[in-house]
Amino acid sequence: MLKGLRALGTLPALHKRILVYAGEPSFRTEDGIHVWAIGELLENVANGTLWD
């Protein structure tokens, strides 16, 4: 599932790589991909902190 996000990791203007899923918990992979439960995505959007 992360193959495409890993391939994008070398783009110079990339700020954050996020995979959203319906499970729990949220975590971050060793190579910096954020894997978020849907609730965490919604919280970040509501708080305006999606790209912080």
Write a structural description.
There is one protein chain. With 52 residues, this protein is α+β, with helices and mostly antiparallel strands. The chain contains 2 helices and 3 strands, in the order H-E-E-E-H. It has helices spanning 3-8, 38-47, and strands at 18-21, 27-28, 34-37. A 3-stranded mixed β-sheet has the order 1-3-2. A hairpin with a 5-residue loop joins strand 2 and strand 3. It is globular, with a radius of gyration of 11 Å.
Give a short summary of the structure.
The protein has 52 residues and is α+β, with helices and mostly antiparallel strands.
Tally the beta strands.
3
Structure annotation, total helices: 2
Low-confidence spans: none
The neighbouring-strand order within the major sheet is 1-3-2
Summarize model confidence as the mean pLDDT: 92
Q: Report, as a whole number of angstroms, the end-to-end distance.
A: 24 Å
Indicate the overall shape. globular
How would you classify the helix and strand content by structural class? alpha+beta
Which percent range fits the helix content? 25-40%
Secondary structure topology:
Elements (H helix, E strand, L loop, with lengths): L2 H6 L9 E4 L5 E2 L5 E4 H10 L5
Parallel strand pairs: 1-3
Antiparallel strand pairs: 2-3
